[in-house]
Each structure stands twice: as C-alpha cells, then as structure tokens.
Amino acid sequence: MYNYISGTLSEKSPASVTIDAHGVGYQLTIPLSTYHRLSEAGSKIKLLTHFVVRDDLQQLYGFLTAEERELFRLLIGVSGVGPKMAMTVLSGIGIPQLKQAIVDGAVPVLSAISGIGRKTAERIIVELREKIILDEECHRTSKQPTVNETLMEDSLQALVSLGYKKQDAKAAIQKVLSLRDHHDKMDVEELIRHSLKYV
User: Fold this and answer.
1) Confidence at residue 137, expressed as pLDDT on a 0 to 100 scale
2) What are the structural domain ranges in the chain?
C-alpha cells in the first residue's frame, strides 16, 4: 500500500519516528539499524515502508535501506516470527552479521539476541539460508561488470579526456569491439588505439 514516506523528521526514538508529510504525522516503527543513521529532528527524511494490517494491528514499519526492508519481509515470512520479533532481530545485530550468521548456520549468534530462543534461531536459518545465499549471488552477479564492460568504460573515459565527444567515442569503441572476435583479450591501450581510427 505504501512504498515510502518522505517528509520532515518530527520526532525520533530508538524504536519509532514520526514523519510530518504535508501536515500529516506518520508514526513508523523502526529498527536500531535505521535509528543510528537518522539525522536530527527537523531534517528531511525518506523511509521505505512496510504496512502490516491484522485484526488487532495496523502498523507502519520504516527502513532507511531496501536491504533492511527485504530482510524484515523475509523474517516475517518465517514460521513463528512476527513483525515485533523481526524488528528485534534487526535491532539486535548488524545487517552483514545477520546475513553471515544465517548463511553459516550460527545458531548461537542468533539466539544471543534478546528474545530469540534457540528454536526460533534454527527456524530462521533453515527457512532463510538458501534465500540469503541466492540473493547474495544474484547481487554479486548484477554488480560485477563484465570484462568487456570494464574495458569499454575505461576506454571511453580515456577518449573523452582526450577531447572526443562521448557519443562519438562510444560509437568508435563499439565498432572496434564488433570487428574483433577476441576483444576480451584486448587491453585499454590497444582498444583506444584502434578506436582512434573511427573518431
């Protein structure tokens, strides 16, 4: 229902914030990982949100990063873990440490969080381990540029620094790469040298 709320940070505490958005004060429950990075009251803020609606509860949860919100959503999907417990987990350990503990199956690390018992820690690991591993692999794949992309970007910057228009330089580089069957073996200097023939 709500993807994010942007406005002025009116009030903040370790557990919640109030954001004034066009005269309406939205109260959001937040984890400590978000609280520690908040600016002072009166500053502009944008929090990603998750809205929980139950018979006995309508509550907005706020997060500074998409990673925090995604982990929250994964946690509340675990059998026996509700929003309150998910926030306890996020507040009790850093995001990188939490992911590592789940991947490593480190039950003692998770059960050391106040309010998290051994059985709950085991369920979190069993139900989320593969999801975390898959997510991390996809993230690395999407973030890592290929050899060709890195080669092209470095060559493009070099040609632009030499005074050539970016569009012309890019077209020349692409032409060279299209003519070479093994351009992954070329280095930046060689690609620039060949590209200069077409700019």
Assistant:
1) 65
2) 4-63, 66-143, 147-195
66-143: CATH number? 1.10.150.20
Give the amino acid at 74.
Answer: L
4-63 has CATH 1.10.10.10 classification: no
Select from 98, 123, 119 the least CA-distant residue to 33.
98
**Model pLDDT for residues 17-35, shown as the tens digit of each residue:** 999 999 999 999 999 989 9
Tell me the whole-structure pTM to 2 decimals: 0.66
145 DSSP assignment: P
Determine contact, residues 69/50, Cβ cutoff 8 Å.
Answer: yes
State the DSSP H helix or E strand holding residue 168, giving kind and residue range, or none if neither.
helix 166-179
Residue 137, helix vs strand vs coil: helix
Which CATH code is given to the segment(s) 147-195? 1.10.8
pLDDT tens digits along 53-62: 888 878 999 9
Adjacent-strand bridge partners of 74: none
CA 70 to chain centre: 8
Of the candidates 71, 57, 60, 7, the residue with the CA atom closest to the CA atom of residue 29: 60
| Residue corresponding to tokens 């093994």 | 182
- Give the pLDDT score at 173: 85
